[in-house]
Amino acid sequence: MLSDAQIARFDTQGYLIVNDVVDAGLLDRLREEYESVLRVHYRNWHDQGLVSDPADGLDFWAMLDRAGAAGLEWFQPLDISLPHADITEQTPFHAGPAAFDLLTYKPILDIVQSLLGPELTSNPIQHVRIKPPQQHVATGEVRAHIAPTAWHQDRGVGLAEADQTEIVTVWIAVTDATTRNGCLQVIPNPPDDMYPHCPRAQTTIADDYIDTARAVPAEVPAGGIVLIHPLTPHSAGPNLSDGYRWSFDIRYNVTGQPTGRAQFPDFVARSACNPADELRDWRSWKEMWETARSVAASSPHIDQHRWQHDSPGCA
Ligand SMILES: O=C(O)CCC(=O)C(=O)O
Ligand SMILES: [Fe+2]
Residues near 112 by Cβ (< 8 Å), separated by ≥ 6? Predict the structure, then answer.
């Protein structure tokens, strides 16, 4: 639970850093789960001759290094979401027990309940971000899960149907997040409305709407979180360290309100009214994403964003 002072600070500043939320046990399980998932993919790449070193003896970071150096698409198999376009029956994603335990982690739900009340849906706008040192990011890589993140408000990355949805972003540091490795930066005291955004390499706030000189870094040690209001402008700079910068960002909205990405599955994470509605089994969560993948693979593309090149300030 958040204290009244923390809630007041979130309400005025539009973000809140909370240290020591995710315990070492869950962080370790996440790291182990990710290492074993990557190992399966890495073995396949090795069998196909795409990487020369065998997986045995390589840890998570070493496998990422080699996959990156070989130009392989290592990110999507690790993401807890499907991509925004070109989904096929084979598009990989990650849904495992430790990731599900993070989405349903009691200390996180308690904190979010302090802001949104006890009827909480896990919103499908969620990602892992594993950002290599910037010098190892492939030229032309613009995805904000690997490369720096452009200025945006999270309301701007959902569809308009969710503009009234009560939602909060929970950004979770798996490695220490520092200015040097490209932690979040936020502009405190958000406006009452959403700025126009532009469909550039990433969806980003239109020119001249924000004063980035007011930005403050949201540094947080591993296991800590940053709560972000949907109208708070935020971004992340390049990872100038020599290690990976790993985070998850997950979201919760009040149950029954539009998620902003209806083609992807949500689930009830907490319910005081109907506890039986809470999803408890990670396999069901995985199946929901597999079903969404099948539907997407055989359906016309659905745009995730509403912005047009001729939106104000996008020239
Ligand atoms: O971690 C990042 O680079 C960006 C995260 C973000 O935009 C979010 O959590 O909403
Ligand atoms: Fe964001």
Answer: 120, 168, 170, 227, 252
